[in-house]
Amino acid sequence: MKKIVIVVDTQADFMNPDGALAVGGADALAGPMNAWLGALSPDDTAGVLFTFDTHFADTYPLSEEAKEFPIHCVRETPGWHNVLDTAQVDPAIPVWRLEKGVFAMWREAGLTVEPIDAGAPIDRDAFFRDLKAAGVAEAIVIGVAADYCVRWAIDGLVERGFRVTVPQALTRGIARPIDQVLAEDFAGQAVALA
Predict the structure, then answer these.
(1) Which of 15, 22, 90, 107 has the fewest CB within 10 Å, making it most exposed?
(2) Rounded to an integer, what distance in angstroms lies between the CA atom of residue 7 and that of residue 94?
(3) Phi, psi torsion values for 152, nearest 5 degrees
């Protein structure tokens, strides 16, 4: 049975120590994440979806996030770019991207999933419905931050009927590590730590 891999917000502003909203220890994840992505097999991987936290300098100050965090991941700035190498993924595995303006990749209406290389964008909700219809029932989630965007990605996947696995070594949190997030927020649900 194939699985979908979700790589949450591996952007310079979160991953690099000098990023606008650096997550402690995230800089040590890039090498292991690239190696892990490179080891994925097309035989059991339906695809890899990279999410991009995406903000704009003129609208961020009015956002809910601005009440908690400084401006970060402004579209097309160095801090917005992914620090991982998508070319590490086997070319037989489809790779997509999704830009989101809030913590939860599910909350905003009208978001699309776009192929990294070429192809037409797909409505986010249709994308995940199509995965389920094709028999993809498991998701693996890696990235940052465990207690914010990773947590909300997991929540939406569970709501949509996916079983979720989170490799502990491939995520970092701001205030809570992933094992604490899973224990406190997902006890008894179809979510496992690997």
Answers:
(1) 107
(2) 13
(3) -70, -30
